[in-house]
Amino acid sequence: MIILGLTGSIGMGKSTTARMFAEEGVPVHDSDAAVHKLYEGEAAAGIDRLYPGTVVEGVVDRTKLGARVIGNAEALKKLEEYIHPRVRADADAFVKRHEEAGTALVVLDIPLLFETGGTDRVDRIAVVSAPAEVQRQRVLSRDGMTEEKFAAILSKQVPDEEKRRRADYVIDSSRGLDHARKQVREIVQELSQI
């Protein structure tokens, strides 16, 4: 089985690209979705202990949590140390299920693949990328996003140029959905022949 790591900096179109892999029939483990699930379940109590007042009716309030950790390196590190092993365990279980089922190709959608040392978990790496100005427009159009939050998030991420350099595949998300979908199909076709 080939494990393709899919990553990209904030606003690059990674989530949309992950859906394209799923539409091609490739099983995708979405780390962000795993975090959401954990925030709504088993991780909520632990996060409430770490950051009192960030859990409302048993569910982590991402806005309140973000206000506590974004721009606070120590608080963010504590959160990552708590949540990342749980997300990794969920991804490992996903991979095991598909290995046992004889699946040929799976995608691990990992936003912080390089930042968390996750490259050893995958066989190939695809980076979703777009020009900096496109990224900036996409991110700043999000509800609640500010220049300061954007800068804080970028400061925690490996620069796009380095991600592209270290990738086996670069998917350009700035040239429209059809172009990105064509790139995804080509990657699936190539990896399915290995």
Structure description:
With 194 residues, the protein is of the alpha/beta class. The chain has a single domain (2-192), classed as 3-Layer(aba) Sandwich (Rossmann fold). Helices cover 54% and strands 14% of the residues. It is built from 9 helices and 7 strands. A 5-stranded parallel β-sheet has the order 2-5-1-6-7, with helices on both faces. A two-stranded antiparallel ribbon has the order 3-4. A hairpin with a 2-residue loop joins strand 3 and strand 4. It starts with a strand and ends with a helix. The model has no long low-confidence stretch (mean pLDDT 95).
Overview in brief:
ATP binds at residues 11-16. The chain has 194 residues and is α/β, with parallel strands linked by helices. Helix content is 54%, strand content 14%.
Give the helices and strands, then pairings.
Blueprint: E1 2-7, H1 14-23, E2 28-30, H2 31-39, H3 44-50, E3 55-56, E4 59-60, H4 62-69, H5 73-101, E5 105-109, E6 124-129, H6 132-140, H7 147-155, H8 160-166, E7 169-172, H9 177-192
Parallel strand pairs: 1-5, 1-6, 2-5, 6-7
Antiparallel strand pairs: 3-4
Helix pairs in contact: 2-5
Largest sheet: 5 strands, parallel
The number of distinct structural domains comes to 1
Helix and strand sequence:
EHEHHEEHHEEHHHEH
How many E strands?
7
Unreliable stretches (pLDDT < 50, length at least 5) are: none
How much helix is in the residues? Answer: 40-55%
First-residue to last-residue Cα separation: 9 Å
Helical element count?
9
Structural class: alpha/beta
- Which architecture would the CATH scheme give at its second level? 3-Layer(aba) Sandwich
Determine the mean pLDDT.
95
Shape: globular
GO biological process, one term: coenzyme A biosynthetic process
Main location: cytoplasm
Pathway: Cofactor biosynthesis; coenzyme A biosynthesis; CoA from (R)-pantothenate: step 5/5
EC number: 2.7.1.24
